[in-house]
Amino acid sequence: MVATVPLPRRPLDASDQVRRWYENELGWPVAPGGPGASVRLVVGRLFDVLDVPAEAGGAALRHLAPGSPVAVRGGRMRLLVAAGSAEEVPGVLEWLEWGPLALDLTVLGAGGLMEAPAPPWAVPAGAGRPAGAVQGAAVWLRPPGPGCEVEVSLPTLSALGGGGDAPDLVRLLDTVATRCHRMRLRECASRPRSLH
Question: Which of 31, 95, 190, 193 is paired with 114 by a 20 to 30 Å CA distance?
Answer without folding.
Answer: 95
